[in-house]
Amino acid sequence: MPSLAANVTPAMTARPSQTDTDIAPPVLKLPAGLTFAGLVGGIVLGLLLAGTATEELVLQVAEPVGSLWLRALQMTIIPLVAALLVVGIGKMVATARAGAMAKTTLVGIFSILAAGTIFAAFAMPALLALFPVPIEAGQVLAAETVEPQQVPGLGDFLTSLVSPNIIAAAAETQMLPLIIFFGALGFAIARLPEAQRAQMAGFFAALADAMLVIVGWVLWLAPVGVFALAIGMAARAGAGAIAALGHYILTVSAMGFVVFVAAYVVAWAGAGFSPLRFGRAIVPAQAVALSTQSSLASLPPMLESCRRLGIRAAAADFVLPLAVAIFRATSPAMNLAVAIYVAVLTGVELTPGVLAAGAAVALVTTIGSVSLPGSVSFVTSIGPIALAMGVPIGPLALLVAVEMIPDLMRTVGNVTMNVALAGTVDRRTGGAVEA
């Protein structure tokens, strides 16, 4: 039997080296605290201006500024998602060729992501029906800067999955045919001769890096953009703005909490660890995840947690770096939950077709995720889902200001599930794991 080490590429080791086709996003020290301060300041000013003679004058300036910032965010969505999807598929195809452990890992990743996506598609609407958003909250995100996309019936929906004109599909922000096209392109590139494959992969990696630079520039202006948008929001909705944001944080984070709890179930059923033993071993990694909000920064304590659990080094050294690179356990569930929340606020009917479109895009776009600050991944991940569901994406520009709070749940859930997956893969591939 060949050595497992022979199947591990440099990008899959505990300290992966940077290659020409890796996404190398710039170091973005985004002003998350200032963005939140801009949100608070905008709400306070909007509340003070509501009903006064100067309200209309201030809004005539604030609303165009906020709209301009939102448009700057929107312009990067399609090229960035396309590039990330092509590069992500290429990495996964290469990983699948690495042997039995790689295939077991990928099956586990897709099973968890699919389960979370399906759960959110049913659970989030039910949760909002059980705990409706505050009545005033509908006014908070009422301003639509993007026209809702009409989702067709079943027959038209199936035929719309393939567009005869991909340029026209991009111009009309038809995300499903775009994702299918670029997904197929990613698989096609993976089958090219090595020289051509490297050239194409390098192009899309460079395109993604360039788009991330632009996103970084735009997000540096987030405090100003969010401040401008929040003024109009608070002036229209009053105190309901605060209630809406609090309700949003709790309901969306609930979806991530379910994935977090599911990690303990996976560790017990898949790896044979008792919840108590697994919980003790994972605490240091969870602490780092909460303090840094970074799965990548949590990699060393995750490896230490695996050592404490008795997971073989060969399995941990393979699974965890790969999981950090392409696996976001909470992403499909929480991203779809955000889109559903905005759909409810803006009156988009959640038909089976709408939910199916959102679930499909939420699952597929996770392939192209990279280790980025929460505010960046929020824009690049949820925008395509909202567009596919016919949901206005304008409200996302305000919600990004409070993403730092749900992002805590995202990171700790991802880290916990990563270690559970490593234990499961170790057991399935022949590791001796004690219960």
Describe this structure in words.
With 435 residues, this protein is mainly α. It has a single domain (50-428), classed as Proton glutamate symport protein (Orthogonal Bundle), CATH 1.10.3860. It contains 19 helices and no strands. Helix 4 runs antiparallel to helix 19 and helix 15 crosses helix 17. It is globular, with a radius of gyration of 22 Å.
Layout of helices and strands:
Elements: H1 32-49, H2 55-74, H3 77-96, H4 100-130, H5 137-140, H6 154-159, H7 166-171, H8 175-190, H9 194-220, H10 222-237, H11 240-269, H12 275-292, H13 299-309, H14 313-326, H15 331-346, H16 352-365, H17 374-389, H18 396-399, H19 404-428
Helix pairs in contact: 1-10, 2-10, 3-8, 3-9, 3-17, 4-11, 4-14, 4-15, 4-16, 4-19, 11-15, 11-19, 12-13, 12-19, 13-14, 13-19, 14-19, 15-16, 15-17, 16-17
Tally of alpha and pi helices: 19
Strands, count: 0
Secondary-structure element string? HHHHHHHHHHHHHHHHHHH
Spatial separation of the terminal alpha carbons: 27 Å
Which band does the percent of strand residues land in? under 5%
CA gyration radius, whole angstroms: 22 Å
